[in-house]
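re: the backbone from monday

yeah here it is again, tokenized this time
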């Protein structure tokens, strides 16, 4: 009598590993460690240092809703998961809210681009802030939601 190969513990383990790989495949600190370095993380926020050298590109990755704070100027092209592109000129000191998204990045400039991305892990606060503001400069309500998440992270 022949056993089915899929019922073995080995196949179950492979299946679990496959699903874990799919879940983690979008995390920029996992798939793009050259460009994204984890600075701090707890159950409330994920703070990621972002660095793209001149003309560097990334693969597709995902971010939770959050705030990007630009440290150095940059000329970037973002391509979303559907292939839609957008060019952005980022200015130092600029901060913008983004709802959860997936994208690829290309630094079109001849200089390095640096930023900090503060991802909000609290789904309720993330959803509330996303409803109040799309990708844009933060309005007062969004600033309030982000501040609440950051205060919760410090507890």
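seq for it, each position gets an aa:
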């Amino acid at each position: 009598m022949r056993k089915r190969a899929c019922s073995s513990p080995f196949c179950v383990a492979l299946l679990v590993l496959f699903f874990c790989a799919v879940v983690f495949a979008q995390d920029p600190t996992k798939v793009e460690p050259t460009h994204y370095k984890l600075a701090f993380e707890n159950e409330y926020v994920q703070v990621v240092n972002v660095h793209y050298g001149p003309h560097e590109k990334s693969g597709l990755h995902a971010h939770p809703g959050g705030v990007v704070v630009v440290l150095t100027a940059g000329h970037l092209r973002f391509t979303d998961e559907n292939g839609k592109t957008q060019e952005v000129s980022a200015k130092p000191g600029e901060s913008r809210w983004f709802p959860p998204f997936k994208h690829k990045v290309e630094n079109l400039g001849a200089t390095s681009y640096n930023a900090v991305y503060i991802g909000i892990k609290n789904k309720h606060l993330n959803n509330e802030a996303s409803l109040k503001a799309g990708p844009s400069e933060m309005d007062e309500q969004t600033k309030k939601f982000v501040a609440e998440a950051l205060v919760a992270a410090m507890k």
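The domain at 27-154 is CATH 2.60.120.10 (Jelly Rolls). The CA atoms of residues 60 and 117 lie 16 Å apart.
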